[in-house]
Amino acid sequence: xxxxxxxxxxxxxxxxxxxxxxxxxxxxxxxxxxxxxxxxxxxxxxxxxxxxxxxxxxxxxxxxxxxxxxxxxxxxxxxxxxxxxxxxxxxxxxxxxxxxxxxxxxxxxxxxxxxxxxxxxxxxxxxxxxxxxxxxxxxxxxxxxxxxxxxxxxxxxxxxxxxxxxxxxxxxxxxxxxxxxxxxxxxxxxxxxxxxxxxxxxxxxxxxxxxxxxxxxxxxxxxxxxxxxxxxxxxxxxxxxxxxxxxxxxxxxxxxxxxxxxxxxxxxxxxxxxxxxxxxxxxxxxxxxxxxxxxxxxxxxxxxxxxxxxxxxxxxxxxxxxxxxxxxxxxxxxxxxxxxxxxxxxxxxxxxxxxxxxxxxxxxxxxxxxxxxxxxxxxxxxxxxxxxxxxxxxxxxxxxxxxxxxxxxxxxxxxxxxxxxxxxxxxxxxxxxxxxxxxxxxxxxxxxxxxxxxxxxxxxxxxxxxxxxx
Length: 470
Fold this sequence. Notes:
- Helix 11 runs parallel beside helix 17 (386-409), helix 12 (266-301) packs parallel to helix 16 and helix 13 runs antiparallel to helix 16 (366-381).
- The chain is 83% helix and 0% strand.
- The longest helix has 39 residues, at 46-84.
- The chain has helices at residues 2-7, 13-42, 46-84, 86-113, 115-122, 128-141, 143-160, 164-189, 191-207, 210-215, 229-260, 266-301, 305-332, 334-342, 349-364, 366-381, 386-409, 415-424, 436-462.
């Protein structure tokens, strides 16, 4: 029975997306339970601000080197090599795994040593006690990218072989580890217990995928050849994407800097609202994008442009059909959503109102944030990592200015501030400037999506090398 589960394969994009959506739904529900436990245990407090701030640097490493870098180059290149020679493809995976892991360990050690300097830069508003705790948590959390890095390589293998069930289960174990840390370790260790839970969850994320990867044909070999042309090609493709993924992570760093200078709890309010607006992304956008990615990569590698466009268009329409009404519902019921999920324990009425308003602003750009992963992966399937990187960097720059502008605009009495107060019923809140951050993010996401789709449309319609069989 267990072997059947670990080896189950999905036959279509819709089937894979359904499996991923269901697992994402369960994972997101666990994520909501996790956030409710955090809100109830700590409230919108300095301790919760510290925890979210400590996540920034390890999360930055994970996103730029792992989620945004290695995974998006592994599937297209593995597809290409596997079609030619299976042994060559598996040797490439082993070499990439070893080179990548050693690089990741080296980077984590260096950043751990310089954590005090980096933390002081991204949290200028924290006092010394908060800084010391943030530095400690940051160093502990550096263990999580190591496990998640290994896990992501196996994830790429499972995606290629359409083994989406096990791939989809991994995030459940990650959230479960954090929840167990909150329930069993926080009463004794405080916020430190949450960080330990994160590391345990990251290890479980990795371990659950090992049997299925081995069953797909993976066999570990101690190959370490960083000068190999295939490794150079992987890192060449990965480099621009790394800068591209760094852009939104830098945005979050900027948010952390700004929020640390705002009243206590601002970072918690933003992060909790952001976690909720990520729900459609994790439930719809990512599952469909991940499910479509291997088929898009294989279609382009086989020089079948017609099949590539058909798969992209079909997936795009399905996402849009679901996400538009969902965005409206989130905006309309934002207050009820926040009350049900976060109004517990130490999370007071003022924090609830600000978080609901933040979610309302995030809802405006949900359709864009949900479709962007699919458009990105379409570019990656073309083995074009430069174009989305350039657009992501431009979006990052714009977002920084928008964040600073809207926070400033909402920090003193004016027509715009009064309008926002009336719309979201924030008359009892003395400082509403934090909600300028989600407003900036939504506007920026919409503009980024529009630019991406225009350039993608132009690129596809001017490319004559992949016409396929008509």
